[in-house]
Design brief:
The chain is an alpha/beta fold and about 300 residues long. The protein is built from nine helices and 14 strands.
Length: about 300
């Protein structure tokens, strides 16, 4: 099969490309990315299983004419491209609308005129807004940020495809874990970096707010296993941990006893979001049970150069 990955040079995209190149049924992977994050790590130092299957196309989501050309002969589209930030950030509303909302709309228009058979969209649990109790997919989206709103609008456009082709929307939790194209604005990644090199981390609020998380390896495996067919089309929460920020700090403190931490605006109670892991999804995609957070963070730390 021939696969197109928008945002394929990003954090999730890099890991997904690595997994897909190991599949015998994948003949060609087109990475479609505008490299707006100036992250070129996808192109460096990798030993992909079958690099001859990979090609790169620099392009914009809003360039619908070019998108239609690139989609010729494509069987599966992974739509990962987005203006990305943590779920509670609330800046750059124009960019969120342009990329996450209207960029997704242009891609959907192009797919509607193509022969694509399967469409997989990585949305965000940020569409739920905030919740002190665990929310499931049936909960009504109620985003509180420009980012969350733009992802919800993107979902609405993607939903139009569901009557025509196999369509999957994955609402990912806060993604963490090592790879070469990783983001350091995500809370766990940021904490591990600061703990390793500064021996001090900064906590916003009182640290008791909860968030839902998913390891980068599990995201890539889930997206790959969709190609195997057992999962019904629909909207799914892709999370496997529900943690207080202080839970992460406690784990790092056990790893690095000399670790210090400071609170910023400790008097503020920040919004929290708890999301129920979908056991049906985990079973259908044969996702492994997560190992302990301590083991994951130790493995992460071991990948630093020093």
């Amino acid at each position: 099969m021939k696969i197109l990955i928008t945002g394929g040079a990003g954090y999730i995209g890099t890991e997904l490309v690595n997994v897909l190149t190991q599949r015998e049924d994948v003949e060609e992977i087109i990475i479609y990315d505008n490299l707006s994050r100036a992250n070129y790590n996808l192109f460096l130092g990798h030993n992909f299983s079958n690099p001859e299957r990979i090609s790169f196309v620099k392009g914009e989501l809003l360039d619908s004419r070019f998108l239609k050309k690139v989609l010729k002969g494509v069987d599966v589209v992974y739509h990962l491209a987005a203006k990305v930030t943590t779920p509670f950030a609330d800046t750059d509303p124009h960019f969120y609308e342009q990329v996450n909302h209207w960029g997704t709309a242009e891609l959907v228009y192009a797919v509607e005129e193509s022969d694509v058979k399967k469409f997989i969209f990585t949305s965000s649990t940020g569409v739920y807004g905030s919740s002190k109790s665990s929310v499931e997919e049936a909960a009504t989206p109620n985003p509180k940020t420009f980012y969350g709103i733009s992802k919800m609008r993107g979902e609405e456009h993607v939903g139009r495809l569901s009557d025509k082709i196999d369509t999957y929307i994955f609402r990912c939790g806060n993604v963490y874990g090592y790879n070469r194209s990783m983001r350091f604005d995500a809370v766990i990644n940021k904490f591990v970096f600061e703990a390793n090199f500064y021996k001090r981390i900064t906590i916003h609020g009182d640290g008791r707010q909860r968030r839902s998380f998913i390891h980068i390896d599990h995201v890539a495996q889930a997206l790959s296993h969709v190609l195997d067919g057992p999962l019904q089309t629909g909207v799914y929460n892709l999370v496997n941990r529900d943690l207080k920020i202080l839970d992460i700090v406690d784990t790092l403190k056990q790893m690095i006893p000399e670790l210090e931490f400071i609170f910023v605006n400790q008097h503020l109670k920040l919004r929290e979001l708890r999301v129920q892991p979908n056991q049906i999804l985990n079973k259908a995609l044969s996702l492994p049970e997560p190992i302990s957070l301590m083991e994951e963070l130790k493995h992460f730390q071991s990948r630093f150069s020093f």
